[in-house]
Amino acid sequence: MVRLLGVRIVVVRVSSEYMQARRDRIARAAIDQFSFRGIHLTSMSNIIEASGLSAGTIYNHFKGKNEIIAYVARTTFSELFAEVEAAASTEPPPRPSELIGLIAARIASADIPTGLLVQVWGEAVSNREVRDAANDVYEQARDALGEYCAAWLAAQGADRRAAERRAPARAHVMVSLIYAQILQMSLIDDHDPAALAAELGELLDRA
Fold first, then answer.
1. pTM surpassing 0.85?
2. Residues 163, 99 contacting (CB under 8 angstroms)
3. Which H or E element spans position 4?
4. What topology is assigned to 1-62 in CATH?
5. What CA–CA distance (Å, rounded) separates 148 from 21?
6. 69-107 pLDDT, tens per residue?
7. Which of 35, 42, 65, 128 is exposed most, by the fewest CB atoms within 10 A?
8. CB-based contact 145:171 (threshold 8 Å)
9. What's 90's DSSP letter?
10. Cβ-contact 26, 51 below 8 angstroms
């Protein structure tokens, strides 16, 4: 409580956890609406109504739909690649095919439909704000997988400096395969991500 010109004013302090919970609630409502209506046909009014929050609360957290799309993309992939970062510190690191299989399973069980991720990529083609988020996500994925690849190559007996030199190219390939998994899971009815990960094993596991 503070005093201003002799008047008592109650200051309400909102925790960062509370603010994050609100942002996640808004994002969840947006994901549901994007999945049901499609990104282009979803309005801020739809998101506001689905969230059960006031318009003022929504705009206190996000400037508009583009910022919500970017937030959804960043948080979804951040959670996914947190597992990659954990794998890099495991002794010994899992084989690349095992890691791809783990990521494929994580994507398949995620709360966000893979088709929505593809919609986000489509939006990124012509939307600079969403494109910036897509590039941030790619860099995070490449960096996380680069750390993992360097650790795995070193575990296979490669000199550490050589492992770090070779890791970026391998990480680029793995990111491309993960993106291909997402695309095929969205478009191919009988796509089996676990089977594809297993088929890639011989190629990926070659040091």
1. no
2. no
3. strand 2-4
4. Arc Repressor Mutant, subunit A (1.10.10)
5. 31
6. 999 988 888 877 777 778 778 888 888 888 888 888 888
7. 128
8. yes
9. S
10. yes
